[in-house]
Amino acid sequence: MGGPIASLNPLNRADGSASYKCVSTGSNILGSVNAPIELPGRRDALKPEEATIEVFVKPGTAPGGVGERYIEGVIRNALGRLILGRENGYPRRGVVITLAIVGGESVGRGGSYLPLLPALLHTAALALLSASVPLSMTLSATVLAVDSSGEIIREPSVKDAKAATSLHALAFTSKGQLLLNESEGAFDFGTWETVYERALAICHGTSTLSSDGDVAMTENVDSQPLEGVLRDTVQDQIHSEYAWKIDAA
Amino acid sequence: MNKEALLSIAERDFILDALREDVRLDGRAADQLRPLTLSFEEEHGHVKVQLGKTSLIVRISAEVAQPHDDRPFDGIFNIAMELTAMGSPAWDNGRQGDLETYVTNVLDRVIRHSNALDTESLCILKGVSCWTIRADVHITDYDGNLIDASCIGVMAGLQHFRRPDAVVKDGQVIVYGLDERVPVPLNITHKPLSVSFHTFDEGKLVVLDATRKEEQASEADVVIGMNNAGDVCYLSKFSGSPVDAMVFVTKTTVALDKVKEINGIIDKALQADLAKRAKGGLAEESRAANDR
């Protein structure tokens, strides 16, 4: 299975941006972050000591609706745990995250956004990194479908997701803690436990914490852990941006 | 909000003084377009347009729906454009600004009202079902001349798009999947494009394809919508200071040249994409003609 393809900073105007393509689901997301930005006329609604996070999901070929507003809330809550909104310059300002679904099959009216959730979260995380928004940690996410025979399908296609008995989207912080858990359909605790184990392995591999606090990642059956893919994307970008310095040394 | 930060007086004067000496910030001539590149994605009707630093994505989609009661023979065609904070930090998500209303209106007039897409050909069964074609314009980078860039994107998308084949059998509508039958191109009657000009210095200086800074420093804009044959289908002088009538006369000629040039670029990009797809595509497989 091919891993996702991601790149940082494809856009000029936004403070930070990322494009993310998930090979198995075929979705292609473009994300941009503007932060910190002055938010007009909503002083009363703001928490004065924290930054306000705004998430906007723009579907590719349909007008936005309730489904988008719902998933925006889910993403906002997850990212709210990562973004350090009290850092210098952020209180009373806004972090505006715009995610446009530019490729792949779009979610129909009333359709589930769960299969797209990991791609949206990854794009948002990469865009936040490229905008240099202070974060406490990063995240990695995956979606698993359980079919009627109890088999787990990783990042199911639209067809597989429709046929599945239950869908589970899980996100983990870079420290391996469970950050988000959204499930759909009928399942029991046992199923969820196995799904959780599998998702953790997909996102983090069988990681071992070495004595100096570095997370060493090893590859397993699910190819490279997603956490590593995101790390590599950022590393590649930094490498190319600092080529002048690295070459000189 | 929903407004770009204003230019400083020094910056405005600099642009104006340079223009008086016939120099533009990016070194172009007054009637020169920025470099235009079009690229098509795998999906039909998915176009990326890059005009200088302005870039956008257009996606065309088709859906079967019921036609409007008063027009049972007509299909439905909509152009949807929503400016998000992605294109420019000055735009608010989910709030409509003046620019959005203006650009949507021009696109509607140039492409939809000039009947570029023959909506009658979208009818499947009178009064019961028809195709709804939707063009979504996603602005990814805004650096001026949104109107022309989106016009190019929508027109290229419409020409690139293929809708699934639909057949009426015993009063039942059957829609064939994209892998069952060769998808059908849309019926394009003509290829209108818009060309915008901005005027400076009491209408003495007229510049084509202004960048964002030039737009902000300008006094007024003139938009001409035209097709390859030179039929003017839209002409507007929306706001700002007056413009001499002769500008319209002389600039329509320039606009015609530009429309032909841009349509040439679109055709070339479409041909290149078609050649790429021809290898091993469904259209090739289902062709009846023998190779000679």
UniProtKB/TrEMBL annotation, chain A:
UniProt keyword annotation of Nucleus present: yes
SUPFAM superfamilies registered for this protein in UniProt: Ribonuclease PH domain 2-like, Ribosomal protein S5 domain 2-like
InterPro entries associated with the record: ExoRNase_PH_dom2_sf (IPR036345), PNPase/RNase_PH_dom_sf (IPR027408), Ribosomal_Su5_D2-typ_SF (IPR020568), RNase_PH (IPR050080)
Protein origin, superkingdom: Eukaryota
Locations listed in the record: Nucleus
Keywords for this protein: Exosome, Nucleus, rRNA processing
Name by which UniProt lists this protein: Exosome complex subunit Rrp46
Source organism of this protein record: Aspergillus cavernicola
Highest classification ranks of the organism: Eukaryota, Fungi, Dikarya, Ascomycota, Pezizomycotina
UniProtKB/TrEMBL annotation, chain B:
Superkingdom of origin: Eukaryota
InterPro entries: ExoRNase_PH_dom1, ExoRNase_PH_dom2, ExoRNase_PH_dom2_sf, Exosome_comp_Rrp42_subfam, PNPase/RNase_PH_dom_sf, Ribosomal_Su5_D2-typ_SF, Rrp45
Residues in Exoribonuclease phosphorolytic domain copies: 32-164, 192-242
Keywords: Cytoplasm, Nucleus, Ribonucleoprotein, Ribosomal protein, RNA-binding
Subcellular location(s) of the protein: Cytoplasm; Nucleus
GO cellular component: ribosome
Protein family membership: Belongs to the RNase PH family.
PANTHER family: EXOSOME COMPLEX COMPONENT RRP45 (PTHR11097:SF14), EXOSOME COMPLEX EXONUCLEASE RIBOSOMAL RNA PROCESSING PROTEIN (PTHR11097)
Protein name as annotated: Ribosomal protein S5 domain 2-type protein
Originating species: Aspergillus cavernicola
